[in-house]
Amino acid sequence: MADDTAYAEGTAGFIFEMGVLKNAKRTGWWFTGNNNPESIAEHSFRVGVIGAVLAMMEGVDPAKVALMCLFHDTQETRIGDIPHIGRRYLDAAANETVTEDQVSAAHPAVRDGVRRVVGEYEAKETRESVVARDADKLECLVQAVEYRAQGYALVQDWIDTSLSSLRTDSARELAEAALTMSPLEWRRTFLNR
């Protein structure tokens, strides 16, 4: 019984920690003049949706990809959202190391499951991990297109680097479509029925 209580508290602590991502901002957007960018949680939500969509298009397991996407930035509760330019000057712990600490007191099934998901994402070896990483980059591109439409002109570097890092045909196809349409195109499609 004591183990059950400790595991429940450790797992609940992990859940509370994940709530930090709702308030932690994606700091790279500050370079574009955006003082109130999306949160890490907002980013991760759409990465999960994009990941599932890309997985369907690529013929891999959408649930597995969405799960990887959900956990891909959870380490940022401990190390923050370090912009790419800042990574040159910092020696942060590996995401697997951070994850290990985050789930160390959680229920064994949770501990093993989260470690496995993060490990697969970080290893970059499976088709699902490639799709999940494309989802992360595609979400950044889509967010940059939205910010550009809102008047933030300095987003082209985010678009270019995201586009150049996409590895799947489906992600490149969706990126090209996103670059040629308004972020509100979906409204027009619905309203024209």
UniProtKB/TrEMBL annotation:
It is an enzyme of class 3 (hydrolase). Its EC number is 3.1.3.89. It catalyses: a 2'-deoxyribonucleoside 5'-phosphate + H2O = a 2'-deoxyribonucleoside + phosphate. Keywords: Hydrolase, Metal-binding. Gene3D superfamilies: Hypothetical protein af1432 (1.10.3210.10). It comes from the Bacteria. InterPro entries: HD/PDEase_dom, HD_domain, YfbR/HDDC2. GO terms for cellular component: cytoplasm. GO terms for molecular function: 5'-deoxynucleotidase activity; metal ion binding. SMART domains: HDc. Its cofactor is Co(2+); Mn(2+). The keyword Metal-binding applies. Residues 36-150 form the HD/PDEase domain. Homodimer. This is 5'-deoxynucleotidase. The lineage of its organism: Bacteria, Bacillati, Actinomycetota, Actinomycetes, Kitasatosporales.
